[in-house]
Amino acid sequence: MLSANTTLNLAFTHTEAEYASFDKGPCWTVTPFQTGQADPGQESTNPAVPNPFCNRAGDSPISQPENTGIATVIHEFELGDSTYAVAAIDYNYVGEFFATSSNDPLSHIDSQGFVNARINITFEDYDTSVLIWGRNITDATTSRSFRSSNFTTRKASGFLC
Fold this sequence. Notes:
Helices cover 4% and strands 36% of the residues. By secondary structure, the chain is mostly beta strands. It starts with 5 loop residues before the first strand and ends in a 27-residue tail after the last strand.
């Protein structure tokens, strides 16, 4: 806690995950098609006798970054006798990862981070709250994996229903 009205929250994860064994795993599909480079995990690289399975031992699980983190600052303040607000801003970081279970090089997603912000104003006399939020407010370019919904948008606008 920074003060009676301001709080700092931090979270960080470090995960070293890889398959000890993964026989008959998926093979690269995009890289061989785009570049002609064969999947090194494929048992047979003979085009006349293709092998539909690959050994994925030593590869990372799909969408599993080594490092992730978030830092959030929350501030609560009074605007009037029966009106108060809570403002928050956070920075989200996700390390690099592969977006396919085959770890196809062309599915590699670089590390990325973005900033979100929100303010909630409560009018107690009217039993009403208004929330204003912004996602990715710095308009950072982000990538999207096939499974992760954390990086699906650039700037997003909020509205009151």
